[in-house]
Amino acid sequence: MKLKLTVLCLIICTALTAQAADTLQSFNLPQFANPFYDFFSRNYLGVEAAGRGYAGSSILGSGLNVNLNPASLAPDSAMVFTEVNIKPPLSADGLGFNSRYSSPVPLAVFGFSFPITSKISSAITYNNPKSIILDDFSIEINQGADIVTRYPTYYLHQLSAAMAYHYSENLHLGLSLHNQLHYLDDVLFLRSYDRVRDYTYRLRFQPGIIVGNNHWGLGLNATLPTPVEWDLKYAAYESTLPLELGLGTHYAFDNNRVAADLRFRQDSEISSAFNDHISLHLGGEKRKGNSIYRAGYFYSSDVFSGLIKLPEVVSIQGDSIFWDEVPAAVPIADTAQHFLSLGFGHLFRDGSINVSAMHAFVGKQRQTQINLSLSLYLSSFKRKDFLYYE
Which CATH class is domain 27-382? Predict the structure, then answer.
């Protein structure tokens, strides 16, 4: 009988331990800055790469590709470029009032590139690698007569300076300095109606190298780990923005090009509950005259799935009756995604236009993103027939 009771206790303890492992009890980063929200918050910057499955770490090109690998910035005439990303809202599981994740500000990239010498090129860009708003998180008060509505927000604003040195036809070195502003607004804490707003600044370094040219190439880049801290009145966070690695290759023949990238992000450095993130990117493009047609596929792995316990202000007990109906934890579905992408580009005398679309056709989170860009040579602004097209 004692043996049976002992075995039963062991089974119960094992079950309780397994259940606890499925629930993230606390965060090392503010809630929406965590990588398990990347299934929506991540903006895939670079319309050309987005069209070919977001592959392009080894391809020399314009400033639109510089976020993948700074060594890819080819020396060319001075250009100004802009890109917008459109992401339709996505339903937020586990929350009431038809809550959804949204990203209403479409500006993704704005910048200009210019040659310094025949072998050195440079670019300065504003870009928006992450953006997410929970639209909305509502709390009923006064027996349902009133509603307090919250819009927890996380934006990563990034001002980048990149420089590439083209040592020879087949050796290209680059470095990007990313000035990051991690902005939070209306941070969610249960049992508090305070609207906490804060930001933190970090400088991140991204070196890169490409061996090859426009016909073939191998590319490698790394965004180095960086410590980060937050003090949000009701909670303090101390963690690391993790190491990111990208390895890519491409081969061109006739008017065609195929490319492949493999990327790694060490999310386990943030929390032992997280898996390291891996993504595989495959794509190609075909040029006909001044038009370029692109297609691709990529896979993004799961970081964390299970329940997350929402942060709570335990010292505040007022209005507790209204908070009793608010969920203390919400589910995070498997964040693995399989994307298909299509893209189109057109070159004209004054610059180029590009469009791409990607959709996660397999996975719990069916994210969609549309990219549009316009690039113009600065010298074109001086001509009387600027943007005249027959």
Answer: mainly beta
